[in-house]
Amino acid sequence: MERIADALERMSPTPLDAPDFDVADAFVWHVTPDRLEPVAEVNRVDVDLLVGIDRSRDTLLENTRQFARGYSANNALLWGSRGMGKSSLVKAAHAAVVAEGYAIKIVEIQREDLPSVGRLLTHLRASDVRFLLFCDDLSFSHDDQHYKSLKAVLDGGIEGRPENVIFYATSNRRHLMPRDMIENERQTAISPSEAVEEKVSLSDRFGLWLGFHPCTQDEYLAMIRRYCDAYGVSIDDDTLRAEAIEWQATRGARSGRVAWQYFTDLAGRKGIRL
User: Fold this and answer.
1) Stated pTM of the model
2) Of 19, 35, 206, 246, which has the fewest CB atoms closer than 10 Å, so is most exposed?
């Protein structure tokens, strides 16, 4: 009987207790069982260290600040080149707005847990706190139906998105789905235009689109120099330029992530802890 009771408990766990949102500014949503786990220290960089994305930074900061003040604001989709600071900007913008004295919490949800987003919003809706719901690296494959769980939450359904919740997502794809998937819909569907509309309508539910594009070499070097100044790493410009360009050549890419990886190596060689 005890084993049967334990099995039933796993199949239908007790409802989530109302979490204490005062214990942290950041939480991670987990399922089986449903729970919001506080994050004591968020992995992020200061917003002033993000170089080459000034317009996106200012736009997202203002949108987040607007929401934190209690005014209307848009869901945001940060899309574009990998390693250019999309995820870092979301976390940095949240930290900057909290530092200004606004009470706003960030809650991260994994893409595979999107079918549970309705249950999560039930708990967030009942709170007086304002929440930034964040999904990193959001994208969908040809047989993935998770996007349907998100469509009604963003803009639609009877309840819709709670007034105290805003949704930010990052993706390498502007429409969140592979181009060949969209093209395949055009070729095989009975009503091609309707099939494509159904697939791309999710991205249309984000009122704010921020594009991130590959950085120039000067921007790449400026990112590293900003890190050096912030962490007190001393290196002359000629040496930094030569080493950084060689580093990017070995990686076959140039981005903010590659700049941070070079700087991590440089700081280690200089005996400086990050």
Assistant:
1) 0.83
2) 246
